[in-house]
Design brief:
It contains 14 helices and 10 strands. It is α/β, with parallel strands linked by helices. The protein folds into 3 domains: 149 residues, 2-Layer Sandwich (Beta Polymerase, domain 2); 134 residues, NAD(P)-binding Rossmann-like Domain (Rossmann fold); 83 residues, no CATH class.
Length: 415
């Protein structure tokens, strides 16, 4: 039986560099490659900075995906393989924001819609994947309508962005510099992008890491040696590196403030700290550190946890409905083949009967209709109870009954 299977490379196991290297090329190229593999009936690809997820419909999904990973030389260490039910559950959780780096973020819904459009344009999806993604998007919308999962910052990084907005107001006319391109730096950058600042730049001691993140998000990468010079033009600096010592001293901030009128907000969320505390004494500078953010973040985490429980309840409810839909479709496909076979036999026998009767006397329209109606009624009555039994077997996942029906009526189906 054909089912959905998926292969995921995400931020949970892989770095941004590893995700970027995992699958080369754009989505249309990747779609074409996956669709060309043996036994792939449908496929779709979700590719973002934080994840590359490949979904297929196949009778041997796990083997097909394992072979794909081998061909692409991707380490099994960073891959998650999901079967039919696991893939569906992941999609619902993903659309609801529970699998995102920033829990509850809304961007994923737009990315999933784009995925559907690209796969539809490429002609690589059918009923199975269309049903899964449409349901996931609908569930994501329901979750955001019925809960406040996306309303409060739960990471220190996103809380830092909230603090900047609270102090400065709208960030749309502000120039922002993020120091650090690790996971926290990415969270900060993503949260900032949602506020649409006038400019956003990322710097990191390793330039390639900054370039990778900046390229993924569509922002500017700044070489680390130019960071202190860039402070002069920044309105907001948020620092989150893993350096064991200060990377910004008081004198660096004093130099940056020379000749400028506008204030500089610095939020240091590194541990140990990136910015010398004495920098906060420089005129025109407001310095906050991680301690002032922890209480905000912890309070919001508690609120989000309460909301997450409600989200999980919605997902469980919708998952049950989705699985039931796939089970009904399985029975319907089987019954369609069964009735098609019966229809063919019925038509042959009716023609044979009409030919025999016509040899003796002329058959009028009424007589022909009586024969057609009678044969149709016989088929429906004969298959009435088997139809109920097959639908029940599909709902109860009784593959033995479904396989027996296939064998008994010579229906082609791999169960």
């Amino acid at each position: 039986m054909s089912e959905i299977a998926s292969m995921l490379v995400t931020h949970r196991k892989a770095s941004i560099d590893e995700i970027e290297r995992a699958w080369h090329g754009d989505v249309p190229t990747l779609l074409k490659w996956v669709a060309s593999q043996d036994r792939v009936e449908e496929c779709a690809v979700l590719k973002t900075c934080n994840r590359v997820e490949i979904y297929i419909v196949s009778q041997r999904g796990e083997k097909v995906l394992f072979d794909l990973a081998k061909k692409a030389r991707i380490s099994s260490r960073i891959i998650d393989f999901h079967d039919h039910n696991e893939s569906l559950l992941h999609l619902l959780r993903l659309a609801s924001g529970l699998e995102s780096m920033i829990i509850g973020e809304d961007q994923i819904l737009g990315q999933m819609k784009e995925l559907m459009q690209m796969a539809s344009k490429a002609g690589t999806t059918g009923w199975m994947l269309d049903t899964a993604f449409k349901k996931a998007i609908a569930v994501g919308k329901r979750v955001r309508k019925e809960t406040s999962i996306n309303e409060r910052s739960v990471s220190v990084g996103s809380a830092a962005v909230d603090l900047a907005e609270e102090i400065l107001g709208d960030l749309k006319d502000k120039s922002v510099l993020v120091i650090g391109a690790g996971e926290t730096g990415e969270l900060i950058s993503r949260a900032l992008l949602a506020r649409s600042p006038a400019s956003l730049a990322v710097t990191n001691r390793t330039l390639s890491s900054a370039e990778c993140l900046a390229g993924c998000l569509g922002v500017e990468a700044v070489p680390f040696e130019e960071m202190k010079e860039r402070l002069r033009a920044a309105d907001v600096v948020i620092s989150a590196t893993a350096a064991p010592h200060y990377i910004l001293l008081r004198e660096d901030i004093e130099n940056a403030m020379q000749g400028r009128q506008n204030k500089l907000l610095i939020i240091d969320i590194a541990n140990p700290r990136d910015v010398d505390e004495a920098a906060g004494e420089v005129a025109g500078v407001e310095l906050h550190n991680i301690d002032s953010l922890k209480n905000i973040s912890n309070e919001n985490i508690m609120q989000r946890m309460q909301e997450a429980k409600r989200v999980e309840e919605i997902i469980a409810e919708e998952m049950g409905l989705l699985l039931a839909k796939y089970k009904r479709k399985q029975a319907e496909d089987l019954l369609a083949r069964l009735y098609s076979q019966a229809q063919e036999i019925k038509d042959q026998e009716v023609r044979r009967a009409m030919n025999k009767l016509s040899a003796r006397h002329t058959l009028g329209e009424i007589e022909q209709k009586v024969l057609q109606d009678m044969s149709h009624s016989i088929v429906n009555k004969l298959f009435s109870e088997p139809t109920k039994a097959l639908k029940r077997a599909a709902e109860e996942e009784d593959t033995a009954v479904l396989k027996a029906a296939c064998d008994l009526f010579h229906l082609v189906e791999d169960l």
